[in-house]
Each structure stands twice: as structure tokens, then as C-alpha cells.
Amino acid sequence: MTRASDWLDGYIKAWETKADEDVRAIFTDDAEYWFRPNDEEPVRGIDAILESWKEPEPGVPVHDLAVLIENDELGIVKGTVDYPGDEKYTNLWEVWFAPDGRAQRFVEWYMTPRESDG
């Protein structure tokens, strides 16, 4: 496994469990979590990240995520996340690694499908 794929596995586990220890295992204490790349400010620090992860989601997500490219400092993850009966997203994530392999900065880039004419 690679640093980015290990991190992604941890992210998926934390997403499913919402357990504080699982979230702490993938983000540094001083991590920045950008829900959108153009937000004025990120969610800053592990306690704020933990709090933000407690917000309810529109359902149980079905995801297809994979590491696209990585080096020692950055992993790029691509894929889709579908909340059946609600929204489906196409994602590109930036995962900026601390030396210990946890994310020090995480940026979500996501899009919703275009409206079809038919």
C-alpha cells in the first residue's frame, strides 16, 4: 500500500464510524479542512474537524474513490460519492501529508452532475 491509499482507507473508516479516534488517526491536531477550495476559511484544528463530522449527512454514501497520483507530500484522490435519493458528486481531493502520514491540509473539489435536457 501507499501513503495515500492507507490514508484513504483510514478516511473511509472514519467516515463510516464517525469515531473520534478514527478521525484523529487521519488528521493532525492543527489540520485545515477545506470543504470547498474557495471557502473564506477552512475548518481549523482537530476539535473543529471532529465537530463538523458530527453534522448529519443526507443518507448512507456509496463511494467509488481511488488515489489518482501521489508523492511524499501530496495525494490526489478522485472518484464519486452518491447519496441515493439525494445528490451524487464527482470528487477530486487534495491530501497534504504531515511527516507521520496524517493530513495536515485537506481540500475537497466536488461537482454535481449537469442537468440533462432529456
TrEMBL record:
Superkingdom classification of source: Bacteria
Which InterPro entries does the entry link to? Answer: NTF2-like_dom_sf (IPR032710), SnoaL-like (IPR037401)
- The segment(s) forming the SnoaL-like domain are 10-97
Pfam families reported in the protein's UniProt record: SnoaL_2
Gene3D superfamilies membership: 3.10.450.50
Tell me what this protein is called. Nuclear transport factor 2 family protein
User: Can you name the source organism?
Assistant: Demequina litoralis
